[in-house]
Structure formats: C-alpha cells, structure tokens
Specification:
Growth Hormone, Chain: A; mainly alpha; about 0% strand; 15 helices
Length: about 400
C-alpha cells in the first residue's frame, strides 16, 4: 500500500494519456521481475541480509505493478466494449484479481508445508508471471480497436489529466462515491487482513478462517457476475449499488456479532458468503458509476482515485482497529498462540464505520448518467428528459 498509493497518480496519468498497451506491458514486466527476484531471494543467496534485500526489492516491483494492472478494467471496458457490455467486461477483469488471491491462498499452504519448500512455492508464482508477461508483450498490439464500440469511446480521456482532477474535486456526487466506496474497500481490506486474528480468539482454526475467506471471494465473484449482467441490461447502477451496499452493511454488523461467539461455524460461514455476495458485486458497478457521474473525465482517473481513497482508508482502518484491541489474560478456546487480543470493540467500530458511510451514500448520492446521456445524444436525435421519472434507464436528475 505504501508504494501503490503515490504511484497510483502516475498510473492514472499513463492510462488516460499513453493508453492501455504501454501500461499493461509495463505492469506485466514489473510483475514478472518482482516474482523472479522473490524466487532468487528465497533460494539463491546465502546471507540472510542479502535475501531480505532481494525479496523486498521483488516485493516492491510487484507493488509498483499492482496499480498498473488493477486500474485498467474501467478503461478496458470503455474502449473495447459497447454500452450494453461494459459492466460485464469490468466485472470479469476486476474479479480476476480476487480470483488470483483465492488461488494463491489455496495453492500456497498445499505447496509449502515447511519453510524449506518456499522456493518451490516461488516457482508456482514466477511461472504464471512469465507467461502473462509474454502474452502481454506479444498479444497486446494497440490501445483501442480500429472502430470505436460506442460514441464515448471516441472521446475517452478527452479531458487533460490535471483538468480532470479539478473537475472531479468539484463534482459532489463523485466526492460522495470517492469517500463512501473508499470506506467500503477499506472495510473489505480489514476483513481479509484480520480474519484469522479475529476468529482464533473463539477457537476457530486457520483452516476454518481460510474456508471463510474462500467463501467470501468465491460467492462474491458469482455475485459480481450476476449483478454485472443485470446492470448491463437494466442500467440501474444506483439502485443496484444502494441496495447491495445496504445489505453489505447488514452483513458487516452481523459478522461483528457472530465472530465473537464460540461454536458458530455455520453462522460465520454463511455471513462471510453473504458478505462477499453483496460486497464484491458493488465493485464493478461502482467503477462504472464513477465514470458515469464524472464523464468526460478519463476513466482511469475517476476509477483510480477511488482505489487510492480505498488504499488510504485501508491503512487508517487497520491501524485504528489493531490499536483498539485489548490483550486478554486468558481465553480457554483460543488458537491464537501465546498472545490473545479481544476484538469486540474493533468489530463494533468497523460495523459502525460501515453503517455510517453506507447511510451517507444511500441518503445523499444522486447523479445523472453523463456518459450514457452523451452517447444517446451522439447517436440519436436529442430527447426530452423527464425529471420526474426516477426509474428511467438513464437517470437525468
């Protein structure tokens, strides 16, 4: 996060100024070099100091590559897909990241059962990185197709980067989305980062925590697919995101209660699955909504700043929640080891933050779909907007 946050601004500039091809190729090369250095650091150097430096250099390259890849789905969807396929395209490309995390979480403990097997695990990470680097370098030939799939694709990124930033800072709807959805990203980061520490206090094993994490991601990807298809057909961006973010807040509140109770495996597993179902489905819809409410600002700029907001809030949330833990003298069910912490107050704070920002978003976020409006006006004759029809496919309020 420390590396990705400042470099995110450079990434958004690259995507909206230089285009997809150089950004993706650079990201794939950095990711490959990072994986290679981690492998070398884990297996080729004798001195522990040398190993640490090489591994951390590889980790830094991987961190630099992260925003170069994660920021591309919205730009990719805008340039290569028509308006009735953009949310679906965004969903597939966005969800590839959590799917990769899920695979890594399943493969890692199966391959590396002892520290001596970590170099073998690094091979499992390095080979796919080389394959992807080759595919990106040899297979991506252009930034966009010869024929734009939509009217907005012809003018994608038409606003200069600095001017686009200024327009976003004056856009009330975008700022609400920036803060509230960034808070949602932070809650999800806290959940995945701290899950094992939270559950072990009540006697739940790391294997069970891993199962909950797998349900969280797996069911979440399924939900993203369902809602991505639906939004593409209905264009009900705001309705879907407001309903789902409300359900996500309810799941967060429920988890903050059941995670503090022993012998509730079924309840915890179900809540984690529902948390992922509603939470993950928000991501691609919110990314598309960020473009709709900020058009004609470049897609990478509008979506990228939301990711930066999420990263910054993630760091703050993790620090605050860990600071609020209270060390326990004893917990008879604990599988945490020698040091045990109570997560009761941090969980209530996380649920409270999720509830507050969800309420603010549901009450105050409202926008017209600027990109869809522009495409309709460019394709057909001007039409009369009905300010009273709140259920129309293109919101013009």
């Amino acid at each position: 996060m420390v590396v990705a946050i400042p470099l995110s601004f450079l990434t958004t500039w690259m995507l909206d100024t230089l285009g997809l091809r150089p950004t993706l190729i650079l990201g794939s090369w950095l990711n490959m070099l990072g994986a290679l250095l981690r492998f070398l650091g884990a297996s080729r150097f004798d001195g522990s100091h040398q190993k640490f430096l090489v591994v951390m250099l590889g980790q830094t390259f991987g961190a630099i590559a992260q925003p170069l890849i994660i920021f591309t789905p919205t730009k990719l969807a805008a340039l290569w897909f028509p308006e009735d396929q953009r949310a679906t395209a965004n969903m597939f490309s966005s969800m590839s990241n959590p799917l990769g995390i899920l695979l890594a979480n399943l493969i890692s403990p199966a391959v590396a059962k002892t520290s001596a097997q970590i170099p073998t695990l690094m091979v499992w990470y390095t080979v796919p990185a080389f394959v992807v680097c080759f595919l990106a370098s040899a297979g991506i030939w252009s930034n966009k197709p010869p024929t734009p799939p939509s009217a907005s694709a012809e003018t994608s990124g038409s606003e200069p980067f600095i001017k686009g930033i200024k327009l976003l800072l004056r856009n009330k709807a975008y700022l609400i989305l920036l803060v509230c959805f960034g808070s949602g990203i932070a809650v999800f980061t806290c959940f995945t980062t701290l899950l094992e520490q939270i559950l072990c206090v009540q006697g739940y094993t790391n294997d069970f925590a891993g199962l909950c994490g797998a349900l969280f991601i797996g069911v979440g990807v399924f939900g993203s697919a369902v809602f991505g298809f639906y939004v593409d057909k209905s264009k009900k961006f705001m309705e879907v995101i407001k309903i789902n973010i409300s359900m996500t807040a309810l799941c967060c509140i429920t988890f903050s209660v059941v995670c503090l109770l022993p012998q509730q495996k079924v309840a915890i597993a179900v809540v984690c699955a529902l948390f992922g179902l509603f939470g993950f489905s928000i991501y691609p819809v919110a990314m598309e909504l960020s473009v709709e409410c900020s058009y004609p600002v470049g897609e990478a700029t509008s979506a990228g700043l939301i990711f930066v907001s999420g990263q910054i809030q993630s760091v703050v949330y993790i620090v605050i929640l860990q600071a609020l833990t209270k060390q326990l003298a004893d917990s008879p069910l604990s599988t945490c080891g020698d040091v045990i912490y109570s997560w009761k107050i941090p969980m209530m704070v996380m649920a409270g933050l999720c509830t507050v920002f969800t309420s603010l978003f549901v009450m105050f976020f409202n926008t017209r779909y600027r990109r869809l409006d522009a495409e309709v006006q460019a394709t057909y004759k001007p039409y009369q907007r009905d300010e009273r029809d709140s259920s129309a496919p293109y919101m013009n309020r």
